[in-house]
Design brief:
Elements lengths: L12 E11 L13 E6 L18 E7 L3 E10 L3 E8 L3 E2 L11 E11 L17 E7 L4 E4 L4 E9 L7 E13 L4
Parallel strand pairs: 1-11
Antiparallel strand pairs: 1-3, 2-4, 4-10, 5-9, 5-11, 6-11, 7-8, 7-10
């Protein structure tokens, strides 16, 4: 026998849009040069390799959709066009686009994604089953550090986790993801 009971809260769809920006003090594309750091959206289902191997086409915004009391994930990538230090991420609060509502500051978290070296592939697998042949560094874990340095042409994923609170107002929310770094000028 089954008893149907209403949920303690209604299921209301909430969508979030994160707009990505990168800033480099005193260097953002000066003199027609490429900016030292790029930031772009990719699917959270894609594994990002530090050498950019099979990196998908970049997107400008991250769009996610969920319901109340759900955890959502998203991912963006930063690419260093030259050596950069003190790369940091900051996020604005997720604010409702039509009302004065916003999600609490701890509703969205981020981590850099670290990689591990794999010397050889698991035996007895067809090459077509592999994402990539070893040796290579494979993205594997969420890092604790809140700032990193990157070498020229290095890619690094930033993984985002969003919790939609039970009492979130339905509708669309927007936030700004800002990456900052200092470039290393070789004299």
């Amino acid at each position: 026998m089954f008893i149907k009971r209403p949920l303690p809260y209604p299921l209301m769809a909430v969508s979030a849009i994160l707009v990505l920006f990168c800033t480099i003090p005193h260097a953002a594309g000066a003199g027609g040069q490429t900016a030292p750091l790029e930031c772009f959206a990719v699917s959270d289902l894609v594994r990002i390799f530090s050498d950019g191997y099979h990196c998908p086409a970049p997107g400008e915004t991250i769009e996610i959709c969920g319901i109340r009391n759900e955890y959502l994930s998203a991912q963006c990538v930063i690419k260093a066009n030259q050596d950069v230090e003190d790369v940091r991420v900051s996020l604005s609060p997720l604010r409702h686009v039509e009302r004065s509502a916003s999600l609490p500051g701890d509703a969205i978290r981020w981590n850099f994604v670290g990689s591990i070296p794999i010397a050889e592939n698991t035996p007895k697998y067809r090459k077509s089953d592999l994402i990539r042949t070893a040796p290579a560094r494979f993205a594997d874990y969420l890092m604790e550090p809140r700032q990193i340095s990157l070498k020229k042409d290095e890619y690094r994923a930033i993984y985002l986790t969003v919790h939609v609170p039970r009492d979130a107002e339905k509708g669309d929310y927007e936030a700004l993801l800002l990456t900052r770094a200092y470039f290393i000028e070789h004299i």
